[in-house]
Specification:
The chain has 5 helices and 14 strands. It has about 240 residues and is α+β, with helices and mostly antiparallel strands. The strands form 3 sheets. Strands 1, 5, 6, 7, 8, 11, 12, 13 and 14 form a 9-stranded mixed sheet that branches. The chain has a 3-stranded mixed sheet with strand order 2-4-3. It has a two-stranded antiparallel ribbon with strand order 9-10. The protein is globular. The model has no long low-confidence stretch (mean pLDDT about 95).
């Protein structure tokens, strides 16, 4: 596996939405160089994390080491790392790693964006964003990450919504901010927002270990409406402007 040039000066402007024609993420065997260099600091940070929140689980996920964005294509090299290594990178945003994850933008039939509020026991407690999560080993097929498989699995686990029953718009889009690239696709649901919220509430109530507290219907791009991560307001602004145009 060759190293890719991660020349961010050639990427689309930070915080802007751009179309994506292909997502190619190869996963290398062996440890991530960032993990090898930072393993002791990551372990020490993890001990502080679980002291504050013992519900956290140090599972395995995919973390990129280099990314190229050119001509609408995202090409990346990655390794499997412990979640504790990722959390340490997220704190430091140190060079040597970067993070790609996918999510669907779910639109109800009455025009709301359906998001979720993360549970208090998670590493993103109280945050409101679209259902989704980091790429995991089970999303790797023949050495490559299947982002579509990942988002379908995450949405089903968190909300009970089956993306196979939604209408997917053609193509992907992406946004990058502070070393993180979010790739997303728009899906239209047949039900109205209130019915979807009730369906998700029933799913959460039946789940013995839910990751989320509730679903949220977003009806405007107001960045202060909820506790959003930084990448959500630009996507909401793009979505609402596009659908009202």
């Amino acid at each position: 596996m060759t190293q890719l040039e991660s020349n961010r000066s050639q990427w689309p402007a930070e915080g802007t939405i751009f179309p994506v024609s292909e997502i190619h993420i190869e996963v290398a065997p062996g440890p991530h160089p960032f993990h090898l260099a930072e393993v002791e600091r990551a372990r020490a940070s993890w001990q502080r994390e679980i002291a504050a929140n013992p519900h956290l689980f140090d599972g395995r996920m995919v973390l990129q080491r280099s990314i190229r964005i050119a001509d609408g294509r995202i090409v990346a090299r990655a390794h499997i790392v412990p979640y504790s290594t990722f959390l340490w990178w997220r704190k430091t945003r140190a060079p040597g790693a970067c993070h790609i994850f996918g999510m669907p933008m779910l639109l109800s039939s009455d025009g709301a964006v359906i998001a979720i509020r993360m549970g208090s026991h998670t590493a993103n407690a109280g945050r409101v964003y679209s259902p989704g999560g980091s790429l995991e080993p089970e999303d790797i097929i023949d050495g490559r990450c299947d982002v579509a498989r990942n988002i379908a699995r995450e949405v089903k686990e968190e909300t009970g919504i089956a993306l196979s029953e939604a209408s997917a718009e053609p193509g992907w889009h992406a946004i990058h901010m502070d070393g993180t690239i979010v790739v997303f696709r728009v899906f239209r649901l047949a039900a109205k927002a209130d019915d979807i919220i009730a369906q998700v509430a029933a799913h959460v109530a039946a789940d013995p270990h839910p990751e989320i507290d509730e679903a949220v219907a977003i009806r405007s791009p107001d960045p202060a409406a909820h506790n959003y991560p930084a990448f959500i307001p630009p996507i909401l602004e793009w979505l609402f402007a596009r659908d009202s145009g």
